[in-house]
Amino acid sequence: MTVLQVDIVVPVRNEERDLAPSVRRLAGYLRASFPFSARITIADNGSTDGTPAIASQLARELPEVRAVRMELPGRGRALRAIWSQSEAEVLAYMDVDLSTDLNALLPLVAPLLSGHSDLAIGTRLARGSRVIRGPKREVISRGYNLLLRTLMGARFSDAQCGFKAIRRDQARVLLPLTQDNGWFFDTELLVLAERAGLRIHEIPVDWIDDLDSRVDIVATALADLRGMARLGAGFARGSIQVPRLRGPSPGAAAPPAGRLRTQVARFAVIGVASTAAYLVLFLLLRLIMPAQAANVVSLLVTAVANTAANRRLTFGISGRSGSARHQFKGLIAFGICLALTSGALAALGTGAGRLAEVSALIAANLVATGLRFLLFRHWVFGRHRGSGQRGSGQHGSGQPQDPGRSEPATAPWPSPDPAISTVEMATQGERTS
User: Fold this and answer.
1) What's the start-to-end Cα distance of the chain, in Å?
2) How confident is the model at residue 421 (pLDDT cuts 50, 70, 90)?
3) Which residue, 9, 188, 207, 346, has fewest beta-carbon neighbours within 10 Å?
4) What are the angstrom distances between the C-alpha of 347 and each of 16, 334, 343?
5) How far apart (Å, rounded) are the C-alpha atoms in residues 137 and 218?
């Protein structure tokens, strides 16, 4: 039999309108233009409409399609479970609306099949990408990825594009380390991959936003912030251990890089907590004072607490010596944040609602947070970076690893999710090894 080279998972939940035309279009592209053996796996996760029946019909009708049913919702849960059980060399996924031009699929998977790269992502934020979407989503997306680069040390440009692929041998190691069952799964996998030293290949894509998207932007953004806080805390405490899969062993890393990773992780945790406290305080004060006044008071209180926490926990400085100077410099950084957030509120005008105010403040704070970290590291606490720093910042397992493609023998392969049941599978389309 032909070896299955690419398994393309299409996660769906209540997508009875888009599922059939999108899958037929994808199947047609694979037959006409795709040179590798491929399968389409429809991953229905908790649909309550006619999606399961349509998926089953497509699996019977099209030889390259199979349908898998999961009773519990969650895109991350579906991808983790199906990728864990797939026998394909490369595991990919794309959104059911096919917002990404399918001509990008071959450039996405080819570097993985050749062994050049380990993980590939579509990016809407790189030069050469052509994107059609509203300004609100554009600002939120760029702010989120800026926050990832600033606080988590990420080097990839677009964590949220629904167009990704990973080699099966690398997924075997990383998937057991992921915890998120929702939209943050993508970001979590990418951050873990970078810390494992994997090579991530980026493809500029043509993207047309789905105007009928039912994603709750605010809820998703809050979930992403919680996910970043969890990852940051895990890295800071050492409870998340990522084996080195490529490149030199973790012990060979230069000490400054280790310190930077530790500082970024701790700063991220403190930053998320400060942002949450700031928003709560702002909403409470907004009941009794205008927006600009509530913003000033909220930002001032949380800025003082943020500076003190980062002084002690992020940069390892204890005692009272220099604390007044640090707080003074921290207030200057506060002034920059105040200018950004006040400017965001002023741009909205006086007639904006609470949701618009909070959204604008979140976006402004994302930018302000990145600037604050740079100021803290290079100016506020710059003279103390080499002293009192705790933690090595290493995230390997401490065991020497082969710098090539070998994987730890003890890495567990996730057990099958009991929530999965195969609805229908087109036997003629199975291309297994």
Assistant:
1) 6
2) low
3) 346
4) 40, 20, 6
5) 11
Taking residues 166-186, what's their average pLDDT? 95
Indicate the CATH number for domain 6-215.
3.90.550.10
DSSP string, 109-124: HHHHHTTS-SEEEEES
User: pTM higher than 0.70, yes or no?
Assistant: no
H/E segment holding residue 243: none
Give the model's pLDDT for residue 138: 79
Question: Whole-angstrom Cα distance, residue 52 to residue 130?
Answer: 33
Task: Please state, as a whole number, how many other Cβ atoms lie within 10 Å of the Cβ of residue 204.
Answer: 19
The C-alpha atoms of residue 160 and residue 397 are separated, in whole angstroms, by 28
Residues composing the chain: 433
For the ranges 2-16, 133-147, 252-266, 316-330, the lowest mean pLDDT is seen at: 252-266
Q: How far is CA 245 from the centre of its chain?
A: 20
Choose between 87 and 312: higher pLDDT: 87
In whole angstroms, give the CA distance from residue 278 to residue 411: 41
Check: CB of residue 85 under 8 Å from CB of residue 416.
Answer: yes
Integer Cα distance of 122 and 201 in angstroms: 9
Residues identified as active-site: 186
Residue 216 confidence (pLDDT): 65
Contact (Cβ atoms closer than 8 angstroms) between residue 417 and residue 82 = no
Residue 427: is it exposed, middle or buried by C-beta count within 10 angstroms (0-12/13-18/19+)?
exposed
Q: What is the DSSP string of 168-225?
A: HHHHHHHGGG----STTHHHHHHHHHHHTT--EEEEE-EEE--TT----HHHHHHHHH
Residue 202 has φ and ψ, to the nearest 5°, of: -110, 135
* Nearest Cα to Cα of residue 194 among 230, 170, 214, 210: 170
Q: How confident is the model at residue 154 (pLDDT cuts 50, 70, 90)?
A: confident
Whole-angstrom distance, CA of residue 147 vs CA of residue 154: 9
CB 298 within 8 A of CB 285: yes
Q: How far apart are CA 64 and CA 66, in angstroms?
A: 7
Q: How would residue 382 be classed by pLDDT, with cut points 50, 70 and 90?
A: low
User: How do strand 200-204 and strand 130-132 relate by DSSP bridges?
Assistant: unpaired
Whole-angstrom distance, CA of residue 210 vs CA of residue 98: 9
The ranges of the chain annotated as CATH 3.90.550.10 are 6-215
Ramachandran category for residue 204: left, alpha or beta (phi over 0 → left; psi -120 to 50 → alpha): beta
Give 123's pLDDT tier (boundaries 50, 70, 90).
very high
Alpha-carbon gap, residue 299 to 77, rounded angstroms: 37
